[in-house]
Amino acid sequence: MYDILAQAEQVSQITGSIQGALGCLGAAIGVGIVGMKGVEAVGRNPDAGGKILVQSILGMALAEAVAFYSLFL
Fold first, then answer.
1. Domains of the chain
2. d(CA 35, CA 19)
3. How far apart are CA 62 and CA 17, in angstroms?
4. Which of 28, 39, 60, 68 is most deeply buried (CB count within 10 A of its CB)?
5. Could you write out the DSSP letters of every residue in 3-58?
6. CA count, 13 A, side-chain hemisphere, 47
7. Angle subtended by helix axes 49-72 and 2-44, to nearest 10
8. How many whole angstroms separate alpha carbon 26 and alpha carbon 35?
9. What confidence tens digit (pLDDT) does each residue in 13-63 have?
């Protein structure tokens, strides 16, 4: 009986970790895509580098917000 309760407690702890890990993984993938596309855009139009940098930073910040939501909720 004790083993079943102990296993249930371990599973409940693991699922919370999985939720946070998947949220952070999604944010990391999003930041990587934003960075990749930002570099690609600067490569196509180097004169617009400043504007692209600002938009990329905003996009990365919004993607990172997902990680905070998954960790705190």
1. 2-72 (1.20.20.10)
2. 24
3. 22
4. 60
5. HHHHHHHHHHHHHHHHHHHHHHHHHHHHHHHHHHHHHHHHHH-GGGHHHHHHHHHH
6. 0
7. 170
8. 14
9. 666 678 888 889 999 999 999 999 999 999 999 999 999 999 999 999 998
Residue 41 makes CB contacts below 8 A (sequence gap 6+) with 48, 52
Overall size of the chain counted in residues: 73
Q: Identify whether the C-beta of residue 38 lies closer than 8 Å to the C-beta of residue 56.
A: yes
Residue 22 near residue 71, CB atoms below 8 Å: no
Residue 50 C-alpha from the chain's centroid: 24
- Write the single-letter amino acid at 65: A
